[in-house]
């Protein structure tokens, strides 16, 4: 695990504050070519993940989640030998592209079908965990130790999520105004980082991130 770089985080928070924090998100939203109204709900003190609510045509965002995204993004690109400077310009572009990506989910015509498939895969994973009596609290669970059919479900889950994200990013690119090669470069790197996050993790992290542990506890109580 990379050591936390306090200096970099301080730079990000300083530039973000200068850019107006919530105002940055509002200006990013208004800069997009949209034919429908989209609502923005911003939380300064709560840790709310940046996400879209397609049925409500809404975007949720928070100070904490955006700062975390930026910090992890700069770590990701700079650790791969690509130097992206922490600056007002780069943070402003990240905000614009993150917002456009969430709008990309809202305008995705197949989003509900994708989410139905996602739910079916999640419940298949739960069924297999119960069938094989797997202790998800065991820290020694490793990918190679799980049954093949459960492994296939995990792969199907990643494919579902990545396909949905790729569609959203493609939609984002069609509506965002990319002015030059520098902005194109940042857009592609933000997309690359966002998609890379779906290629990591094992059964234990999938259980935690998709609230499967909560469903399993409830299932055991009902049983």
Protein architecture, described:
This protein folds into 2 domains: 6-87, no CATH class; 111-222, no CATH class. Helix content is 63%, strand content 6%. It has 9 helices and 3 strands. The protein has a 3-stranded mixed sheet with strand order 1-3-2. Helix 2 (22-30) packs across helix 4 (88-106), helix 4 (88-106) crosses helix 7 and helix 5 packs antiparallel against helix 6. The termini are far apart.
The secondary structure category is: mainly alpha
Sketch the major β-sheet: 3 strands, mixed
Report the uncertain regions: none
Rg to the nearest angstrom?
A: 19 Å
Domains, number: 2
Cα end-to-end separation: 39 Å
What fraction, in percent, of the residue positions are helical? 55-70%
Q: Write the H/E string, N to C.
A: HHEEEHHHHHHH
Question: What amount of the residues lies in strands?
Answer: 5-15%
Instruction: Give the rounded overall mean pLDDT.
Output: 91
Compute the number of helices.
Answer: 9
Q: Rough shape?
A: globular
Order of adjacent strands in the largest pleated sheet: 1-3-2
Strand tally is 3
Topology overview:
Blueprint: H1 6-18, H2 22-30, E1 39-43, E2 51-53, E3 58-62, H3 63-79, H4 88-106, H5 111-131, H6 148-175, H7 181-196, H8 203-209, H9 212-222
Parallel strand pairs: 1-3
Antiparallel strand pairs: 2-3
